[in-house]
Structure formats: structure tokens, C-alpha cells
Amino acid sequence: MQLREEGGNLLIEGACEMDLQSIFECGQCFRFKKTDDKAYLGVAYGRPLKIDQRGDVITLYGVNMHDWEQTWKSYFDFECDYGAIKQRLATDEVMIKAMEVSGGIRILRQELWECLISFIISQNNNIPRIKKIIEGLCENYGKKIEFEGETLYAFPTPQELGRATKEELALLGLGYRDEYVALITNKVKTGKFSLEELSKMSTSQARSMLISQRGIGGKVADCILLFGMHRTEVCPHDVWVKRIFKEKYGIENVTEKKGYALCESKWGEYSGIAQQYLFYAQREGK
DNA sequence: CCCCAGGTCGTCA
DNA sequence: TGACGACATGGG
């Protein structure tokens, strides 16, 4: 892999265990959309990004080496050696086949606050609608960002989102989740629920803390731990995991508890990443 | 009209 | 603990 600046853009060349489509469409992140010219356009940490992949060249438009070091290197989790992780996970045929499809996934280091709200919204919901709702939140309450001739919006801060009433949220399509979002937003805004403290806790402490909040159960807590706090040992136990254990591994009636034990014994500290590989491959029908 | 969606909550045994 | 329906909304 090689990094260089060219024409005001940053180029990543050569193998880097990175596939933009699977990264942005595996359901870890809801803020990047595909453009007509087959790039991905979105906002993270309040900064706009346009990025595309042609052959083995990835281009981050308008990004210099300083921006890369400051923001995007960490966002795309470049401290992590995915080659080594995949080698560690390649212990059975199911996983090896899944990784042929989804091996380019990286667990993005997203903002905790954004993940918290996004995955509360994700419950009993489908990915296109989750994206639409979050887009609505950003357009209505987030800061406007003009970029490359397009208008983008940052994810609203707790203060900004705190201006929304429950009724306004309902209008954006949150449905019964309006109450959950309003409650936790208010707590974060007023400091009753500290994301800073949360992020310092052990995984099991943080999980209990999350679950004690209204509208956050085990699955949503796990997604927040994995995607918002990069606790890669956490495997969100959803309907798809059940499906995968049944169809691919021939293990039936996997309860939540059983599922965690299975993940722990099979994939250990990388259970969350393993789950993403399997989840994406399964959703792609492979 | 039905069913489902990266679930959670309250209730009842 | 474990099972089961309700819950808003929109798409198929």
C-alpha cells in the first residue's frame, strides 16, 4: 500500500484490505451515499468527504496528508491490520467464503453520539428507511456544509438535536422511537448521560449503562459498542446471526446467550468483525 | 389486506 | 427466565 498526494487529492494505491461498497453498505454507517459518478459522498466528524475506488486506487478528493493523518486514517481504521485479523478468522469454510465477499470491510471509527442515535433508530426498521430518517435529522437540525457544488449536512450535536420536539421527530418518520431519541438526547445535552464516561468504561459496564436507557436493548447496545466505541469483541446478536448459525453452521435455536458463547469461542476478540463479514455476505445472498 | 424491517417494552405465566 | 403481542412507518 502506498499513500500520495496528487492534484489536490489523496491517493491510496495497492492492496489495503478495503472495499468502499462493503464498508458503506454493510449497515455500520448510514451517512454515505453513492453518487452518479460512483463515488461515495458523506460527512463524518463534521467534515465532508468524497471518496472513490477504481481498480486498486482509492481517491479521497480534496484531502491532503494532514487531513488524512488528522481524521481519515483513524476513521477508516488504518491502525488496524485487517490482513492479520482475517487470517485469524479463517478457521472454517463458512467464514472463508464470507470473507471472499465481504473481506474489504473495515469497522469505521464513527462518532459515538451519532452511533447512539442512529442505532436507536435502527430497531425494527430497514436500512433504506434508517438512512432516510437520519438524513432528515441532519437536514433539519445539523449544520449546512457546502462541498463540491453540493449541499451536505453534519449530524446534529446533542444541543442541536435537543431543539427538536417529540412531535417534530415523529414527523421525520421516527415513529414510536421519537420518545427514545428525545429522552437520550436530553440526557446527553444536560450531562446526565456522559458519553465521555461511557467510552472509558469496560465493555460490560458500558453495555449495562447503555441497556439501562429506554429504547436501548442488547442488540442496539452491541451496535453502539462495536461501531461507536470500536469494541471489536462485541458481536451484535440480531436476526441475521440467528439465520447464519442455522443456515450456514447448522446450529438451531440460537438464543442470545448461546450466540454470544458461540461467537466468543469461534472468533474471540474479533467477534464483531466476524459478524460484519458474515452479515454482509448473508445479506448479499452469498 | 398481508408481511417485514440490523428490536424493545410490558405483561403474564 | 421465556414467550408473545404491540409499537409507527413505509415498501413489497
Largest β sheet strand count, sense and barrel closure: 6 strands, antiparallel
Oligomer: single chain
Kindly provide the radius of gyration, computed on alpha-carbon positions and rounded to a whole number of angstroms.
19 Å
Structural class estimated from helices and strands: alpha+beta
Please trace the helix and strand order, writing H or E for each element.
Answer: EEHEEEEHHHHHEEHHHHHHHHH
Mean pLDDT: 96
* Percentage of β-strand residues: 5-15%
Approximate helicity band? 40-55%
Strand tally, please?
A: 8
Distance from N terminus to C terminus (CA atoms, Å) equals: 28 Å
Rough outline: globular
Give a description of the structure.
With 286 residues, this protein is an alpha+beta fold. The chain contains 15 helices and eight strands. It has a six-stranded antiparallel beta sheet with strand order 1-2-6-5-4-3, covered by helices on one side. Strands 7-8 form a two-stranded antiparallel sheet. Strand 1 and strand 2 form a beta hairpin. It starts with a strand and ends with a helix. The structure holds a DNA duplex (13 and 12 nucleotides).
Keywords summarizing the entry:
single chain; about 290 residues; alpha+beta; about 50% helix; globular; DNA-binding
Describe this structure in a few short sentences.
This protein is an alpha+beta fold and 286 residues long.
